[in-house]
Design a protein that fits this description.
Order of helices and strands: EHEEEHEEHHHHH
Distance between the termini: 37 Å
Organism: Nyssa sinensis
Structural class: alpha+beta
Number of domains: 2
Largest sheet: 4 strands, antiparallel
Helix content: 25-40%
Main location: membrane
CATH class of the largest domain: Mainly Alpha
CATH topology of the largest domain: Transferase(Phosphotransferase), domain 1
Domain Protein kinase: 1-211
Shape: globular
Keywords: Kinase, Lipoprotein, Membrane, Serine/threonine-protein kinase, Transferase
Strand order of the largest sheet: 1-4-6-5
Number of strands: 6
Protein name: Protein kinase domain-containing protein
């Protein structure tokens, strides 16, 4: 669940925090339900992700995500501001992106809005590559090495490397595969997973391998 709250409210215990939110369509796992909250003009807005209690990610995976993201600070990465573990609620507070996500601009274009031009797409791809380079080579400690991370950090269907899905072992190559899927989305404008009954159209990577 994604909420946009004034930062002081986001840091209050879940049971006492004000929740004035308007839902819109959920899109990605393992978090579900997206909402936008009203806030006083003088207070900063943050994006809150709420763990889907019916999903596959548990407390251990939530803790791993908090520990990993709290170490990251880079212009091309969304900052984790804080988290909440109150009762059975698990929340993550991030910087809010007022212009929306890449997914919004590629696949959910508002009426009257233009598609991203080629130069903008390449700038986005370069920025994502810089963020990935930071994670692998410049973060302290770097995320990934010559072995693997076996703690299950749940990914989004369509972006996970096949070997990660089969072994639960996360490596540098797993990240590069996921980045490659995003790059294909940026170049083609197609979704990673498409609802289609046409053979070869469902998975973007499989579709690309046919050409």
């Amino acid at each position: 669940m994604l909420l946009l709250l004034p930062f002081p409210a986001a840091t209050q215990p879940y049971r006492t925090a004000p929740h004035t939110a308007q839902p819109y369509a959920p899109r990605s796992a393992p978090f579900c339900c997206c909402c936008v909250a009203t806030a006083a003009a003088a207070l900063p807005i943050v994006a809150i992700k709420q763990l889907d209690r019916n999903g596959l990610q548990g407390n251990r995976e939530f803790l791993v995500e908090v520990l990993m993201l709290s170490l990251l600070h880079h212009p091309n990465l969304v900052n984790l501001i804080g988290y909440c573990a109150d009762g059975d609620q698990r929340l993550l507070a991030y910087d809010y992106m007022p212009l929306g996500s890449l997914e919004d601009h590629l696949h959910y274009i508002s009426p009257g809005k233009k598609q991203l031009d080629w130069n903008t797409r390449m700038k986005i791809a370069a920025g994502a590559a810089k963020g990935l380079e930071y994670l692998h080579d410049k973060a302290s400690p770097p995320f990934g090495d010559n072995t693997h991370v076996s703690t299950r950090v749940m990914g989004t269907y369509g972006y996970c490397a096949p070997e990660y899905a089969m072994t639960d072992q996360l490596t540098l190559k797993s990240d590069v595969y996921s980045f490659g899927v995003v790059l294909l989305e940026i170049i083609t404008g197609r979704k990673a997973i498409k609802n289609s009954n046409t053979a070869g159209e469902h998975n973007l990577v499989a579709w690309d391998l046919n050409y």
